[in-house]
Amino acid sequence: MVKYSIELKQRIIQDYLSGKGGSTYLAKLHNVGSSSQVRHWIRNYRAEGLPTAHSKVNKNYSMELKENAVQCYLTTDLTYEAVARKFEITNFTLLASWVNHFKIYGEVPISKKRGRRKKLESIASSMTQNPNDSQRIKELEQELRYAQIEVAYLKGLRRLEKNALMNKNQDSSTVSVKPSNSKKS
C-alpha cells in the first residue's frame, strides 16, 4: 500500500475545496492511485479536519473500546467508517477485522504484543533444558487429546439427539387420524 505524505493530502483537499476539480481529476493530477482514495480523504476532512502529522499514530486500543465498537457496529446501521469515527479508531479496516474475528470466534481479538516471538523462543529454549518440563508437556498433550475426544463425543451425541427430535416431529406431523367406531343413536 502506498503511503502519501500529509502535505500531499492537504494540498489535494485544498484543491478540491477551492473547486480545482473533482476526485478523479485530482487523483490523476497528483498521481494518487485512485479517486476513491481522494474521496476517503475528503470524507475524513469533513469529519475530522485537515490531516496532521499526529493524526496517524499507532494506537493500542483497550479491550473495552474494541468490544463497544464491535457491538455498536453489529447493533446499529452505521458503517465501519462511521463507527470508527465515533470511537476515534484511526483506521476503519481495523474495526472490520475486529468484527470478522468476533463473528468467527465470539470475542474481539487480544492486542498483539511486539517482541512476542523472542519470548516464545526463550521459553522454548528454557524448556528443553529442564526434563521435568518435557514430561509435563506430554501430560498436557494427553489431557488435550482426551478433551478433544470428549468434545467430539458430546457433539455427536447432540447431533443424534437433534436428529431423533426432528424424526419424532416429522412422525407426529404425518400421523393420520383414525375414524372412531362409535355408534350413533
UniProtKB/TrEMBL annotation:
<dbReference type="InterPro" id="IPR009057">
    <property type="entry name" value="Homeodomain-like_sf"/>
</dbReference>
<dbReference type="InterPro" id="IPR055247">
    <property type="entry name" value="InsJ-like_HTH"/>
</dbReference>
<feature type="domain" description="Insertion element IS150 protein InsJ-like helix-turn-helix">
    <location>
        <begin position="66"/>
        <end position="118"/>
    </location>
</feature>
<feature type="domain" description="Insertion element IS150 protein InsJ-like helix-turn-helix">
    <location>
        <begin position="9"/>
        <end position="50"/>
    </location>
</feature>
<comment type="similarity">
    <text>Belongs to the IS150/IS1296 orfA family.</text>
</comment>
<dbReference type="InterPro" id="IPR052057">
    <property type="entry name" value="IS150/IS1296_orfA-like"/>
</dbReference>
<dbReference type="Pfam" id="PF13518">
    <property type="entry name" value="HTH_28"/>
</dbReference>
<protein>
    <recommendedName>
        <fullName>Insertion element IS150 protein InsJ-like helix-turn-helix domain-containing protein</fullName>
    </recommendedName>
</protein>
